[in-house]
Amino acid sequence: MTDTEILTAAEQPGANGAAHPAGQVAMVFDLNKCMGCQTCSVACKVLWTREEGEEHQWWMSVNTQPGLGTPKGWEQMGGGWKDGLPAAGHQPDRAEFGGGWEFNYDEVFYGGKGRSVHLQPRDTGDGTTRWGMNWDEDQGAGEYPNAYYFYLPRLCNHCSKPVCVTACPTGAMYKRAEDGAVLRDEEICQGSRFCMEACPYKKIYFNYVRNVAQHCILCFPRLEVGVAPTCARQCPGRLAFVGMLSDPDGPIHKLVEEWGVALPLHPEYGTEPNIFYVPPLAPYRLNDDMSIDEETPRIPPEYLESLFGPKVHDALQKLRSELERVRSGGTSEILDTLIVYRWSSLFGPFVTDPATLDRRPEKVAVELSPRGAARRDEEQ
Amino acid sequence: MEINQSALDSPDPSAIGWADLPEIAVRLSPVPLAAQPNAYIRAAWEGRPYGMVTEVKVRAARAADKLNVLLDWERPGAATGEFTDSAAVFFPPPGGNEPPVTIGTHDEPVTLWLWRDLLDIQTALDPARELLSTGPGRLRPRDRAFGASGDRSSAHGTPASIEAASSCQGSRWRLVLQGDLDTALSAGRMGVAIWDGSNDERAGIGAVSSDWIPLESGKDM
What we know:
CATH architecture of the largest domain in chain A: 2-Layer Sandwich
Structural class of chain B: mainly beta
Largest sheet of chain B: 14 strands, mixed
Number of strands of chain A: 14
Number of domains of chain A: 2
Largest sheet of chain A: 4 strands, mixed
Radius of gyration of chain A: 22 Å
Helix content of chain B: under 10%
CATH class of chain B: Mainly Beta
Distance between the termini of chain B: 15 Å
CATH topology of the largest domain in chain A: Alpha-Beta Plaits
CATH architecture of chain B: Sandwich
Number of helices of chain B: 2
Helix content of chain A: 10-25%
Oligomer: heterodimer
CATH topology of chain B: Immunoglobulin-like
Largest interface: A-B, 40 and 32 residues
Shape of chain B: globular
Distance between the termini of chain A: 40 Å
Order of helices and strands of chain A: EHEEEHHEHEEHEEHHEHEEEEHHHH
Number of helices of chain A: 12
Number of domains of chain B: 1
Strand content of chain B: 35-45%
Structural class of chain A: alpha+beta
């Protein structure tokens, strides 16, 4: 072992915060129900990333799989843990994220060219108009009649071994004890962006205007008053569960730990995500004569294994057997849970209706970076 | 290095008065990889050259209760990527024993005046700030710094105002950092660090002076 392979206590996975938080808030997304409507993405965008420098940021995003996603080709950018050590990664640049475009509204609407010029992003010469958050929507893979795709909502995984926290030189990033949210104190962040390199999921953005990195905060101000994160609460497909991972009576624990039908994305990255996915079932393939090949699923199992690891096969088999039982007249607690007969059953302890809250502004001085306030309060 | 009184009351790298002040050439060397603040940075930069600026010319003068430091260096390349050039001077606590290459420790944090070449869109940011450094890349605002025992503390007081002015002609930076004279004279020594933005240098990945530059109050001019 060389000097560079020795991790100090502060560098160990899960250090610089709560290695074992008092409670870990986790989420499960049922990919069989996601229709790619981007309501979650827009809800998050409207709530958290409307300020200057955040135009290109989509803390919650839904991409079509198979696909290059956002940032473009993120699965090939490295980072994460390898053999217990942090692995070098690529810092995605603005062109790889794309988006945040400015459009030629003046020209089209007020310049007298409404019949000759169409609305389009202004090319700023930095490559940002050649990719975007949902650029390869619905492309998928395969050939007719066996083409396939599915949608994958992604946000910060609020990992149990957050390598972004390890990579941060200033200690601005930390894992919060009470709910396991991975947060950043923007008043301390110096914009070095090692977190962006180290995160293997590439869900950390950079605010070039303010010189700070930014990412999903798990809607912690909502969690603190019992309200579910906005991406989950606004989801019209009832596919986003929120709750405590360790709650034995909650759907998260059952889906992940008890039934094993919800899996982390790319578990081989080693960060132990706390966002889980029920993998997608798909129709069987069609033969050339259009008869059904009941032996071959349309989505190649090896592709799903590349996303969710080898446990995906057991998870899919479990789901298929549950479906078969119900079709045979039986019942299934797993499917009843995934159907979500009662909307509120998605949100565990976070069922408070935000409309019932007293939302008057607090009498505090306006701060440049309010998201740093949580860390400051914790330190005092 | 003598800190002489001068008429350089505002930071101006093109002021004629700088020519009358003595100049010293300070050798810089890369901050050792082993001193980097975490295993990720050590892994990411192992085998990759950094600390590309190898020399900086330094002049200093006092005006009233302010210290002006002129840094003059050749930039290795135009910073057109994600990171911009930056530079700093830093001052150890009185009686400190650590060499400048540490850029501070938990027990001996240094006061660091950091300048960044801002992007055009960063109009709301100050190009220079006073920070407390407890090691390479371990920078924090003074009022958010880790205490000597590792606890978070506000015992280090509020940040002082730092002014900066810079010019880049061709490949040569001239930068003036202006801050509190007492901070410098009570330290009695100064270190210098330069980051080459074209090489993605930032945090602890940069070049630092190998030796302290002694500071003493000089004559009035």
